[in-house]
Amino acid sequence: MADGDIYAERLGRHAIEAHRMDDQFRIITRLTCSALGWTLHPSVTRNLDQSPSIADFATGTGLFLRSLAKTYPNAARLDGYDLSPEMFVSDGKVKLSVADVKKPMPTELHGLYDVLHVRWLIAGMEPDDWEPVLRNLLPLLKPGGAIQWVEPAFSQTQHLRGEPESKTATLTKMSLMFRSGPLQQRFSHGWSTLPAIMEKCGLRVETDLVSSDRVVGTRRALTENGLVALLGFARIMASKQAPGAMSMAEIDAVEAKAKEEIESGCYLRYDVHTAVGFKPDDMK
Fold first, then answer.
1. Which terminus of the chain faces fewer neighbouring Cβ atoms within 10 Å, N or C?
2. pLDDT per residue over 201-245, tens digit each?
């Protein structure tokens, strides 16, 4: 299993990235709520009481849990975990702590939670990380509990024309650079492999997916959000003088062209996959 903070190496952990992550969460939540009608999957909430214990992994600023606090004001626990505390924002309603999902979880957390939520780990994962991470998390679930894991199919990202005269060349090129080489293989896992991994680990599995462009009103915002990630990655690679990296001046020029393309109607599209695994009542 890969060690270290791969996410920080690719996208950084700072105020700009924290703001981008929160915006991305709001956009995707609007997408799933508008198109599908849920934040927690209906198969999860169907048997959930009004005082559940819920843990969120790769929690970032903790925004997911703060949004759930409105739905479950009497929740027994709303706990967020992340590899780094640099993005934590706490308002007293949730508890945020440092934890590395690539290592076994503390035994005092075993059997504590009704629901585990994992979202958008793909930027920090290698292809062989997914099963060990799931096995690290499962002991935290109560028997009969559920893990909801949401991942994007970044390996299949497209930039499409929203209008007859829309331009897409610059954003398409940037996207290909971001997910080329080893990243293409990494971005092909998780969203496509989690259901089978969950079944291998003894869980009953339900799946769902929604296209990122399904709600027309979210297209531009998600495309602009994605551009921030692409530019952040490009600038990190430039600062490291990575092979094939653009110069800072080239990145600035590309940014201007990309913004013109968004203004012309270019938009980002990928599928967002949800895998929900249910722990059997007789599993420890």
1. C
2. 999 999 999 999 988 989 999 999 889 888 887 887 788 887 878
